[in-house]
Amino acid sequence: MVTEHGSAARARRIGRLVIYGSLIALAAFYLMPLWVMITTSLKSLDEIYGGSFIGLPRSVTFEAWSKAWSQACIGTSCTGLKPYFVNSLMMVIPAVLLSTGIGALNGYVLTKWRFKGSNLVFGLILFGCFLPFQAVLLPMAQVLGKLRLSGTIPGLVLVHTVYGICFTTLFFRNYFVTIPDELTRAAQIDGAGFFRIFFSIMVPAALPIMVVSCIWQFTQIWNDFLFGVSFTAGDSSPITVALNNIVNVTMGRKQYNVDMAAAMIAALPTLVVYVVAGRYFVRGLTAGAVKG
Amino acid sequence: MATLEIDRVRKAYGSMEVLKEVSIAIGSGDFLVLLGPSGCGKSTLLNMIAGLEDITAGAIRIDGQTVNDLSPKDRDIAMVFQSYALYPTMTVRQNIEFGMKIRGVPAAEREKATREAAEMLQMGHLLDRKPSQLSGGQRQRVAMGRALVRHPKLFLFDEPLSNLDAKLRVDMRTEIKRLHQRLKTTIVYVTHDQIEAMTLATRVAVMKDGIVQHLDEPQVVYDRPANVYVARFVGSPAMNIIPGRLKDGPAGAELLMDQPDGGVSRIAGVQISDAARRKYAGRPVLVGIRPEGFSVAAPGQSAVKAAIEVVEPTGPDTLAMFTLGGTEVIARLAPKAVEAGQIADLAVTTAKVVLFDPETEIRID
């Protein structure tokens, strides 16, 4: 009896060991590129060319980071990533706010103010989620040209807002469907109009999905390369395009440490957004699935 | 306080007619209950009074003023919803004040009105909580408080008690009745529960398929239902509808009903107009007898012979089932008055017997 009990406990312990062992191994494998990126970015160029690629840096230096930020050459101008980082911010903030706001309004109308054919409209908007980027490149270029927004940041804001509406509408529509219609009716009897109901009742109730929409849109727009490279040039490029130019266009020795630092600078904002708002993200995605 | 007039109102969604010429008029301070099964159009009618649904044809007048084209906020009404519809992100106080805020009521007045409503509904201690922190009964109270502070001409209730458990439902029912007695506001109340209708209403409108079947005081609806449908819908257990025949004799009208043993039960002295007696003499009729219309017969009293099949004691009385006129009949008798398997002589209170035409199912007067 006692030995049976003991052996069962040992079997369980071995089971745990196998599970944790394989999890750690997989995690390490998965984190390997990050490790290489961090260590490489902290090494001097000489050390990289002289020593191993994977080992710890012999002497830690942040030179590559500051070079990537303010000195690295992109094309012919050696300004570093800084101006392009600002470009990206100026693109991503209005685009996220606009697409989220319009999506919220769309979702509100499609659930609480249904009209004849509103389901068809929703279906068509949904269809936009499945449109590949490449399919809209040419018509979008024509539209931007007609609007005289070609090659500008406002042009990119417009592109990302329009493209994002499909997703944000889907988010908000599915969230607002779970809010009972009687709430709108009660507010109507209380004397609230269309926008009053939207701002006083729907928006405060939609906080979780708002976080989801913002995170989603932020990562999509920040990480976008195709629209950025197609619709901007030179000074108005977003950071993803600038990063590409740093990495792919080099004179002389390839500066791996600067490339790595630049790549991490470009990825940092999305990382921060996830860390700060990540728990709301999961909560928002599952909201409505379980009714409280 | 206001009168309400629903004048030949119709509602259609495309070709589907939900309400077919509904006309109801109630006086100031009346408590109208719209009673019917789901899908009878009662909630649609309430939403039309509220202004949440368009009126296809006809007119709705509040205090003589046609409100067809007024938006909900201009009709001076307040509504309590089945799901309470409390704004989830606002506290109880904010919920109650929301309507007043929109109307631009000054803060001091809002505060006073909220305090009064909270006092009346005994929920002063809940004012700073969120709806999610309240129990069902408390939410119900808040929803009523939100309606109350407006001092509207008309209160509308949409099945307000159906989400509560049985005991709370009875408590809140009394509360609503007390509120009505105190405020004397005109109320329109939708429910599918006939007991709520009986206990609360001053006027009941029994609806089915978008038509008002019977509109009257609850006691009249109970005692003299307009047709077989109303007779069966109001009252629990339902009124017995027994196929029989009318016989016109020198001693007055007599009802004959077949017993399962081949014999015939006779009820004499049924109240019926001369015209109806002549019309239906010798013809089949439906005999409506409430369960409490039966009683154990005294010796020598005229009675129907009932072979009791099942007995269900409920405490205050006993329900006895037997067969008459080829249908199952329920009698509400004194406790332990009869036993299963017994053949009992049951007298019928003839004054309470209602007759219906077997084809149209409409009451014969």
The greatest interface here is:
A-B, 17 and 24 residues
CATH class of the largest domain in chain A: Mainly Alpha
- Would you identify the regions of chain B where 5 or more consecutive residues have pLDDT less than 50? none
How many strands appear in the DSSP assignment of chain A? 0
What would you give as the CATH superfamily of the largest domain in chain B? P-loop containing nucleotide triphosphate hydrolases
The total tally of domains of chain A equals 2
Q: What is the N-to-C succession of helices and strands of chain A?
A: HHHHHHHHHHHHH
Number of helices of chain B: 9
> Can you tell me the residue ranges of chain A where pLDDT is under 50 for at least 5 consecutive residues?
288-292
Main beta sheet of chain B, described? 6 strands, mixed
How many strands in all of chain B?
Answer: 22
Q: Based on the structure given, which CATH architecture of the largest domain in chain A is correct?
A: Orthogonal Bundle
| Spatial gap, N to C terminus of chain A | 46 Å
- Molecular shape of chain A: flat
Pfam families (chain A): BPD_transp_1
Organism (chain A): Paenirhodobacter ferrireducens
GO biological process, one term (chain A): transmembrane transport
Subcellular location (chain A): Cell membrane
Summarize the topology.
The complex is a heterodimer of chains A (292) and B (365).
Chain A lengths: L1 H40 L3 H6 L12 H8 L11 H31 L5 H10 L5 H14 L6 H24 L4 H10 L3 H12 L1 H17 L2 H6 L7 H10 L7 H31 L6
Helix pairs in contact in A: 1-13, 3-13, 4-7, 4-10, 5-7, 7-10, 10-13, 12-13
Chain B lengths: L3 E10 L2 E11 L4 E5 L6 H9 L6 E6 L2 E2 L10 E4 L11 H11 L4 H14 L15 H13 L5 E5 L7 H18 L2 E6 L2 H7 L2 E6 L2 E6 L1 H6 L4 H6 L6 E10 L2 E7 L5 E5 L5 H7 L3 E6 L4 E3 L7 E4 L2 E4 L4 E7 L2 E7 L9 E6 L5 E3 L6 E2 L1
Parallel strand pairs in B: 3-8, 3-9, 6-7, 7-8
Antiparallel strand pairs in B: 1-2, 1-4, 4-5, 9-10, 11-12, 11-14, 12-13, 14-21, 15-20, 16-20, 17-18, 18-19, 21-22
Helix pairs in contact in B: 2-3, 2-4, 3-4
